[in-house]
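Sat 14:20. Reprocessing the chain from the morning session after the first attempt stalled halfway. Input below, unchanged.
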Amino acid sequence: MTVTEEDGLVCRLVWGEERAKDAPSPVLADVGAQLAAYFEGRLTMFDVEMSFPSSPFQHGVLESMMSIPYGSTKTYGDIADYVQGSAQAVGNACGANPIPILIPCHRVLGATSLGGFSGNGGVESKVFLLRLEGAAGLLI
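Finished this time. Tokens:
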């Protein structure tokens, strides 16, 4: 995983990119430690300052995703009701999530399917994260 920061704020998380060879900044070292703890099952909530330029609608979707507790899920429709938009528009905003895992778009499901995932690996990565959190339920 590659995490990018600007001015001390995390702004991007991507799978599969080559890591920088320089020592990480204190912010990136902290994010790395938190991600390691998450994948080891020792962390259920991230404490990371982020920057995600977005429209007011997208911002509402991203904030709604961040309110979903570890091990829980919501549907695109649930979030659409909250932000007063359509489930499709919520799906598009989820797909544009620049910081997957930290902004847990994997916790958002379709009404009758898993939906998509903005991180590398697509739905397979989503399934992995849901299983890691014990949120797989009957859909998987």
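The beta strands are 2-6, 9-14, 74-75, 108-109.
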